[in-house]
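3.2 Worked example (two chains)
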Amino acid sequence: MVCWPQTRPPPLHAVHTPPRRQAGLASDQPSPALVRQAD
């Protein structure tokens, strides 16, 4: 549902989940992983 381009900042829900967001960023690309975990 939420597909944020790499050029744009992460959605608000990402800010509400700092640990998961960091894990996604550390992995490689925050977009797919972040959307999955945020779901």
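3.2.1 Second chain
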Amino acid sequence: MKKICPKCGIVDKSHRCSKISNQKKRDDGFYSKYSWIKLRARILKEQPYCMRCLSKYGQIVDDKLEGHHLLARSEYPEFELEEDNIVMLCKQCNLELGDSSILDFELNNKDKEEFYYNNKKK
């Protein structure tokens, strides 16, 4: 299946974007902190599948799940451990959305929707 690169817009099924590959992710140790590990485990129990794949494609994907911040940590560090700011996504969906606070799927969760729209900068 062809995918659209979120950084350069190229449509291809095997495209590896140099803009993404060359980005240096900051390693501040956040994802190895006990508070994140505990929160991620709790959310994973409630959402044992990729929310984007289910909403956008009608598929249940439960492999290689990652916690995705609806409001990016880089823009909204005050919400990095806010449960309503995190959804489970498969690795592919998390890469496609990247470090962006723009969503391309319906959340289908009232609490998360309210949190997202009430806190997102206009």
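3.3 Remarks
The longest helix spans residues 34-46.
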